[in-house]
Amino acid sequence: MLKKINHIGIAVHDIEEAAKFFTEHLGLKMGGIEEVPEQKVKVAFLPVGEVRLELLQPTSPESAVAKFLEKNGPGFHHIAYQVDDVAGAVEGLKAKEVKMVDQTPRRGAHDTLIAFLHPKASGGVLTELVQETGHHG
Ligand code: CMX
Asked: What are the pLDDT digits (tens) for 92-119?
C-alpha cells in the first residue's frame, strides 16, 4: 500500500524564520509558501532527495498545529506516506478498525488528497497518507 515517504512534517511558529536554518546551514532549497485552508496551516516544502521536509505554520489558533506548538513547541509533527488510492487505503484501515482522524480523504497541499491516522493508532507518530492528483505532488 505504501509507495514511499512523501514528506516529513515539522511544526514551526514562523516558516520564513525556521527555514533559515535549513537553507543557510543545511543548504536546502525552499519552494513557495502555500496556504491550506482546510488544515488551517501555511506550508513550505524543502526537498531532500526524493523526500521533502514540510514546514507547517498555523494560520489560526484552532489549527491542530497551533495546539501542537502550544503543548510541545516546534519540532517533528508527522510522517506522510504516499499511496496510489487514499480512499481505498482509508476504507481498508477502517475495516481493520484502525482509529482515523479523517474518515474520508481531504484536500492537502499541492493537488493532493490526504487522510490522517490518529497518533494513538500508529505508535504515537501522527501518520498521513497522501495521494498525488496533480502535477506538483
Ligand atoms: N504527533 C504525536 N502525537 C500527537 C500529535 C502529533 N503531531 N498531535 C497530538 N498528539 C497526541 C497528543 O499528545 C495527545 O496525547 P495524550 O492524550 O497522550 O496527551 C493526543 O494526541 C490528543 O492530542 P490533543 O493535543 O488533545 O489534540 P486533539 O485530540 O485535539 O488533536 C489530532 C490531535 C491528532 C487529532 C489532531 O492534531 C489532528 O487532527 N491532526 C491531523 C491534522 C493535522 O495535523 N493537520 C496539520 C497538517 C496538515 C498538512 O500537512 O497539510
From this structure: 999 999 999 999 999 988 889 999 999 9
**Is residue 119 within 6 Å of ligand 1 at its C-beta?**
yes
Q: Measuring from atom 11 of ligand 1, which residue has the nearest CA?
A: 119
Residue 137: its pLDDT value, please?
A: 41
pTM of the predicted model, to two decimals?
0.96
Q: Which residues contact 20 (CB under 8 A, 6 or more apart)?
A: none
Enter the C-alpha cell of residue 38: 482546510
pLDDT (0 to 100) of residue 30: 97
Of 11, 117, 119, whose CA–CA distance to 65 is shortest? 11
Residue position matching grid coordinates 511544526: 11
pLDDT digits (tens, 9 = 90+) for 44-75: 999 999 999 999 999 999 999 999 999 999 99
Q: Are 55 and 43 in contact (CB under 8 A)?
A: yes
Residue 129: CB within 6 Å of ligand 1?
no
